[in-house]
Amino acid sequence: MAEANQHPAGNPLLAGLALLCSQLSLNIGAAIAKHLFPQIGVEGVTAYRVGISALVMLLIFRPWRTPLTGKQIINVAVYGSVIGLMNLLIYRAFSRIPMGIAVAIEVAGPLTVAVLASHRPRDFVAVCLAVAGLYFLLPIHGQVDQLDPVGVAYAAGAAVCWALYIVYGKRVSSMSGGQSVAWGMLAASLFIVPIGVAHAGALLLTPSFLLTGLAIAVMSSAVPYTLEMLSMRTLSSRTFSMFSSAAPALSALAGMAVLGEHLTLTQWLAIGAMVVASALTSLR
Question: Domain for residue 5, yes or no?
Answer without folding.
Answer: no
